[in-house]
Amino acid sequence: MTPVWTADLGDGTYRNPVLNADWSDPDAVAVGEDFYLTASSFGRAPGLPLLHSRDLVNWSLVGHALDRLEPAADFAAPRHDRGVWAPSLRYADDRFWIFWGDPDHGIYQVNAERVRGPWSAPHLLKAGKGLIDACPLWDERTGEAYLVHAWAKSRSGVKNRLTGHRMSRDGRTLLDEGRVIVDGDRIPGWFTLEGPKLYRHGGWFWILAPAGGVDTGWQGAFRSRDFFGPYEEKVVLAQGGTDVNGPHQGGWVRTPAGEDWFLHFQARGAYGRVVHLQPMAWDTDGWPVLGDRGEPVRVHRKPAAPPQPVEAPATDDAFPGGRYGRQWQWTANPRAGWTVEHGRDGLRLACVRSADAHDLRLLPHVLTQRLPAETFTAGVSLSLESAEPGARAGLAVLGDAFSWIGLERGADGVVRLVHRFAEAVAEREREAAHARVVPDSAGGRVRLRVEVAPGARCRFAYDCGTGEGWRPSGPVFTATPWRWVGALLGLFAVAPEGQGGAGTATFTGFHVN
Question: Which positions fall inside the Beta-xylosidase C-terminal Concanavalin A-like domain (predicted)?
Answer without folding.
Answer: 317-512
